[in-house]
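Our preliminary data section would be incomplete without showing what the modeling component actually yields. Below, a chain of 139 amino acids is followed by its predicted structure, encoded as tokens that our downstream tools consume directly.
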Amino acid sequence: MNKFIVINGPNLNLLGKREPEIYGNKTFEDYFKELKFKFPDISLEYFQSNIEGELIDKIQEVGFSYDGIILNAAAYTHTSVGIGDAIKAIETPVVEVHISNTFSREEFRHKSYISPNAKGVILGFGLKSYELAIKSFIQ
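Predicted structure:
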């Protein structure tokens, strides 16, 4: 059975409450239950942290034994050389995801320290971005 993990960064624990015009009204926990239901033949885990070092620790922990990482580093995408380096250092492929189209937002959100080391980038499709990332691994 393929083993994947969704890793979410800062403020994504507020989905369902935070800026619903951008991020919608659904919590990630509720959406994650739907994802697990849609993909019953894979092992799917979820981790979220607002702390950069915890995200790096999780990437290193799973980066040699999982089949794929779906990573939404949120604001750290645009600031964290450390997360970019962690992805470069592991063997497990990473798909970078974003709920919003970061290129339609502020200029500083147009730079990613993750993209150069990711298998691919999916952005702007709302929560469906995560489903598309999973499909990129299994199809």
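The domain at 3-138 is CATH 3.40.50.9100 (Rossmann fold). The chain has five helices and five strands. Preliminary results of this kind motivate Aim 1 of the renewal.
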